[in-house]
Automatic annotation (TrEMBL):
InterPro entries listed in its UniProt record: DNA_recomb/repair_RecN, P-loop_NTPase, RecF/RecN/SMC_N
Any single Pfam family the record assigns to this protein: SMC_N
Role: May be involved in recombinational repair of damaged DNA.
SUPFAM superfamilies with a match to the protein in the record: P-loop containing nucleoside triphosphate hydrolases
Protein's UniProt name: DNA repair protein RecN
One annotated GO biological process: SOS response
The entry's keywords: ATP-binding, DNA damage, DNA repair, Nucleotide-binding
The keyword ATP-binding belongs to this UniProt entry's keyword annotation: yes
Gene Ontology cellular component list: bacterial nucleoid
Family (UniProt): Belongs to the RecN family.
Molecular function, one GO term: ATP binding
Length: 570
């Protein structure tokens, strides 16, 4: 239930607070005073698209805030908490601002949130009916939705199972059609993959192999220079097998050690140096040994090995050029390509599996569609009977509403049924589809009758009606008011109206008052009681709030509404 609505700088409304609360609230006011902005404000709080054109002229932004009273254990409360918001006891605060540039911000339970969260909460908080909804009631989809809501939880459960099976069937069928359509293309892709993988497996490249071969080629290509340089270095380090007995580093270090060792006893500083030179001799001796080992390891047939290395590098180069990422990508393609080839090679099995699954789901969908048809046909009879009874109470005593359920050509996400609402305005007349045969006033009453009936099986916390009484007057308007009051016994009802006959049945009457201060028109909202309410009713009836006859008629209407609401079920 909406307890209070606050509006600032929206349309012509500068600032207004609407005390709403339970029961039936009527909102009235002069043309252009901003009554529709009340519905616009609620729409913003329920996730409607923000429109910069609704921001009051000269102001940077508009702001609306609603205070709801909800069950803290409800799905709405859970969704609020999921969005990061919270409740204050049973109280939920929703807010929305719209800047003059069109930017929008939403607040849910005290925290900023995407406007889509407001949209998620919409269906569990409010049902809004306006002139556009009367037009929408002419559509087959809206008529089917109305019947499904009336049919209640049993149909909803079957519809849920049906839609789950339908979506799975459609997804499998799309995959199956794609596999069958692309079978030749996928076969060619498999052949190409198989050839590519065979080539990679034949070459058998190893990670880092191209770099390693490059280093070996560099070594083998300069083998003679390496041998000469190595030999020369070894002779300089250690010339023990040199017949010329040339001095070398090992011999020089040994001579230096002996020279110091002879006098080391005379100076404590010398023994450490003797040791250091001896250690250096050991290191140099090790280097000489490593040089000898290096020279011994140089290939005798380097030219032949170089040829083999260059051939291998050429083979790897041909393979690497086929892949943007070079040899590393080719190696990685062994895994990804093999997985893709396995998938393509299993197409026949996959097609068989999908065919079986799609066929099973098609049969299940057909079965559930038939179950939906049975439930809808049974509900259609009851809906027609109950709405017809309501129409009789809405000054359409001879009108009959017929609800037809016919099989369509194919299953859709909502079943196979085509639902049509037909209105027979009086006995002997040919029933005609609402889409072609109902006037605006008749549509208003049919829509209200449907909501009154459906609310018994699919209750909604709050209904908002924007001029549902358009095209209606006289006794019909009184009956609309009476039915709205009846609906308000089990739900909160907010009605924007221009008819005194409707407003008279409201337990809470709000008037949108227009002032003029020169260039800017501003509106505010007043809660009417007693003589003020009678004056507003008189204005609605005659355009003259001070008319004596208008005031008498207004009070008569109010008395009728008070007594009529008590006898509305008789």
């Amino acid at each position: 239930m909406i307890d209070e609505l606050f509006i600032r700088d929206l349309g012509v409304i500068a600032e207004a607070t609407l005390p709403l609360g339970p029961g039936f609230t009527a909102v009235t006011g002069e043309t252009g005073a901003g009554k529709t902005m009340v519905v616009t404000a609620l729409g913003l709080l329920l996730g409607d698209r923000a429109d910069a054109g609704t921001v009051r002229q000269g102001q940077p932004q508009s702001f609306v805030q609603g205070r709801w009273v909800i069950d803290p254990t409800s799905a709405v409360a859970d969704r609020v908490r999921d969005a990061g918001g919270d409740l204050d006891g049973p109280e939920l605060i929703l807010g929305r601002s719209v800047s003059s540039e069109g930017r929008s911000r939403a607040m849910v339970g005290g925290r900023g949130a995407p406007a889509s969260v407001l949209g998620d909460l919409r269906n569990d908080l409010v049902v809004v009916h306006g002139q556009s909804d009367q037009v929408r009631l002419r559509s087959a989809a809206a008529q089917r939705d109305a019947l499904d809501r009336f049919a209640g939880p049993e149909l909803a459960a079957v519809l849920g199972d049906y839609q789950h099976a339908f979506h799975r069937w459609q997804a499998n069928q799309v995959d199956l059609d794609r596999l069958v359509t692309e079978r030749d293309l996928r076969a060619r892709e498999a052949d190409e993959l198989r050839a590519a993988l065979t080539e990679i497996e034949t070459v058998a490249p190893q990670p880092g192999e191209d770099a390693e071969l490059g280093e070996r080629a560099e070594r083998l290509g300069n083998l003679e220079e390496l041998r000469l340089a190595g030999e020369q270095a070894r002779q300089f380090v250690s010339a023990e097998d040199n017949p010329d007995d040339a001095p070398d580093v090992v011999a020089l270090l040994e001579a230096a050690r002996r020279a110091l060792d002879r006098v080391a006893a005379h100076d404590v500083a010398l023994p450490p140096l003797v040791t250091a030179i001896a250690n250096a001799g050991f290191v140099v001796a090790d280097i000489a040994a490593e040089l000898s080992s290096y020279l011994a390891g140089l290939d005798a047939d380097g030219a032949r090995e170089l040829e083999i290395v260059q051939e291998r590098r050429a083979i790897l180069g041909i393979l690497a050029r086929k892949y943007p990422g070079g040899l590393e990508e080719a190696i990685g393609f062994l895994d990804t390509g093999s997985a893709r080839l396995l998938e393509l090679d299993s197409d026949s099995d996959r097609i068989g599996q999908l065919s079986a699954e799609a066929d099973a789901d098609r049969k299940l969908v057909t079965h559930l569609a038939a179950a939906l048809t049975t439930l809808r046909q049974a509900a259609a009879v009851q809906l027609g009977i109950r709405v017809t009874a309501e129409l009789g109470a809405l000054a359409m005593p001879d009108a009959v509403l017929l609800v037809e359920v016919e099989a369509g050509l194919e299953c859709t996400v909502t079943g196979i049924d085509l639902v049509r609402l037909l209105l027979q305005p009086h006995a002997g007349a040919e029933p005609r589809a609402l889409a072609r045969g109902a006037s605006g006033g008749e549509l208003s009453r049919v829509m209200l009758a449907i909501e009154v009936v459906i609310n018994a099986t699919d209750p909604v916390p709050t209904f908002v009606f924007d001029e549902i009484d358009a095209g209606v007057g006289g006794a019909a308007a009184i009956e609309i008011g009476r039915r709205l009051a009846r609906l308000a016994e089990t739900a909160q009802v907010i009605v924007v109206t221009h008819l005194a006959q409707v407003a008279a049945f409201a337990g809470n009457h709000l008037s949108v008052v227009k002032d003029s201060d020169g260039s800017v028109t501003a509106s505010s909202v007043r809660q009417l009681r007693g003589d003020d309410r009678a004056a507003e009713m008189a204005r609605l009836l005659s355009g003259l709030p001070d008319s004596k006859s208008g005031l008498e008629h207004a009070r008569e209407l109010l008395d009728l509404a008070q007594s009529g609401s008590r006898t509305s079920d008789r």
